[in-house]
């Protein structure tokens, strides 16, 4: 990857001056690669950042950011002819980013809380956007909805620190309870760790401590024959 992922070093940075290192248009969409970025690309259940680029007398919206062939690509519906090595000021939609950070951290705190209440659950997948959910192999009683909501907000009020960092795969196997089979073993991997809970592999961006999440509420719990989905939101 050519782009420096500044959002990991400082997830609270809202503006950054960058240099364009690649640009192309396809199907009326501008595709821009930068030397460094504060825009988080969609992935790991976390939505991408949106925002604006400004250069010269032009301002364009950034409508989507994702990884294409190993590179972070900023996409805009505004077609403007960028030039390689041109400088641009970038601005993320902070309200959108901060909500995504809070929702993502909330999902991990919910997981940690569920592991206390239902230790036999095995995580399958999750999404931390506007329709946030966690899915597990196993069962969660819908009758426990209020108890889960109460337990997670008690854990939230402890204001535990939320740590994200890179570690080697071997250290990951020692520290993490659940490790996806498709993780690469030959490069550093990012994890999240909340307070004294077990670390988990995770490539997203998060708030600094649990109180910053706000209040968490449980929307519903749906069980199928061998799995359970719990939907949540933040206030």
Description:
It is a single chain. By secondary structure, this protein is α+β, with helices and mostly antiparallel strands. The chain folds into 2 domains: 89 residues, Elongation Factor Tu (Ef-tu), domain 3 (Beta Barrel); 137 residues, 2-Layer Sandwich (Threonyl-tRNA Synthetase, Chain A, domain 2). The strands form 4 sheets. A 7-stranded antiparallel sheet has the order 6-5-9-2-3-8-7. β2 and β3 form a beta hairpin. α2 packs across α3. It is elongated, with a radius of gyration of 19 Å. The protein starts with a strand and ends with a strand.
Mean pLDDT: 95
Number of strand segments: 16
- CATH superfamily descriptor of the largest domain: Threonyl-trna Synthetase, Chain A, domain 2
Given helix and strand content, the structural type is alpha+beta
- Which consecutive residue ranges, at least 5 long each, have pLDDT under 50? none
Helix content: 10-25%
Tell me the domain tally.
Answer: 2
Could you tell me the CATH topology label of the largest domain: Threonyl-tRNA Synthetase, Chain A, domain 2
Measured between the Cα atoms of the first and last residue, the distance is 36 Å
Per CATH, the class of the largest domain reads: Alpha Beta
Strand order, largest beta sheet: 6-5-9-2-3-8-7
Instruction: Provide the gyration radius in Å.
Output: 19 Å
- The ordered H/E elements are EHEEEEEEEEHEEHEHEEEE
């Amino acid at each position: 990857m050519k782009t420096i992922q500044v959002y990991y070093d400082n997830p609270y940075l809202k503006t950054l001056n960058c240099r364009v290192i690649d640009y192309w248009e396809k199907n009326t969409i501008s595709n821009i690669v930068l030397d460094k970025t504060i825009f988080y690309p969609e992935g790991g259940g976390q939505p991408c950042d949106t925002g604006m680029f400004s250069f010269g007398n032009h301002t364009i919206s950034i409508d989507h950011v994702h990884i294409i062939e190993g590179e972070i690509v900023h996409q805009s519906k505004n077609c403007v002819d960028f030039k390689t090595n041109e400088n641009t000021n970038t601005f993320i939609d902070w309200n959108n980013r901060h909500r995504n950070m809070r929702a993502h951290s909330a999902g991990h705190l919910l997981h940690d809380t569920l592991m206390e209440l239902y230790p036999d659950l095995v995580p399958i997948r999750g999404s931390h956007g506007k329709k946030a959910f966690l899915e597990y192999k196993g069962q969660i009683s819908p009758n426990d909805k209020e108890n889960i909501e109460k337990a997670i907000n008690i854990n939230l009020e402890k204001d535990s620190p939320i740590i994200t960092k890179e570690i080697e795969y071997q250290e990951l196997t020692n520290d993490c309870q659940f490790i996806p089979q498709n993780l690469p073993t030959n490069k550093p991997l990012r994890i999240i760790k909340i307070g004294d809970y077990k670390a988990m592999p995770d490539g997203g961006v998060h708030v600094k401590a649990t109180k910053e999440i706000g209040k968490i509420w449980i929307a519903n719990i749906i069980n199928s024959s061998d799995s359970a989905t719990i939907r949540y939101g933040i206030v």
